Amino acid sequence: MNKNILQIVQKKGFYQLEEIKLNKKIYINKAKENWVVDRFRSEWSQYNCKTSNSIYSKNVKIIWIIAPWTWRKLPTSRLNNKIVICTIHHIDEDKFDNEAKEEFYKRDKIIDAYHAISASTKNQIQKLTDKKIYTMPFWVNQNIFTNLSNKLEIRKEYSIDEDAYLIGTFQRDTEGYDLKSPKLSKGPDRFLNLIDNMSTQKENLQILLTGKRRNYLIEELKKRKIKFYYHEMVDFETLNKLYNALDLYLVTSRYEGGPQAILECGITRTPILSTRVGVAPEILNEKSIFNMDNFNKAEPDLDFAYNNASKLGMPSGFKEFNKMFSDFL
Prior knowledge:
329 residues; alpha/beta; Rossmann fold; six-stranded parallel beta sheet; 12 helices; 19% strand; disordered N terminus
């Protein structure tokens, strides 16, 4: 009996039938949120097709919950009979109330091991469970994100002033419940404090924003009469160009899993400064990590960040993940 199925897939602009083998051992759950984890899932499945499937089957041995908030979408019968590995991106401790803790402990009952993106996230998880925790950042796609040498041409293409001192922040800054309150875990209030100071030191300081839920910063920048550019949702080619148009990328978060922007800045050689969150200590030079008291002393180190980010390019960035899975296969 043929245990494979046929699936319609799109390749190079054409739809075709492709046979999907159902004897593979790893299944990654779907987020379907047009977020970075959807890209991780796609990249993993593409490069690890010998061991992983995009379709669940009874032959699966490991379920990888790559988006922990989606765990309830998976049937309990599946979770109770498989090895379950759950990625925790970060825990926003300011929002981790009794309800959130209860949700964590309910999920923890069916988890066999955790994947933490960073050492700081591992420290958070250790306070809540005695399950095994694997720690490694996600990989970065060097085929998408790369250094470009034509900054002025890019600025002209997107109608950005050539002489601007351009600072980027591509992460959401606004709470979803009212689309106006600051998402404090991302530190937009901190970002504004830094911009207020820098605007007195840098001529023609301007801001570049991408992504959804940028409402808070947009309103605050308007109040300050600081010129900004906003590209809500862009494709990867455009996003790479926008990184390369920057003079500086700022991460001002209080809590983070990555953010992936640290790796993307590293691999594109985009100058970046970050608070001590997520993978910043693993990727950035110590002098590129700041708190709100020593920001003026912080310095980007392009070579340091590039060298560390390059180690996590594909496929080498999959190595530690495959080691993790091999412990259960």
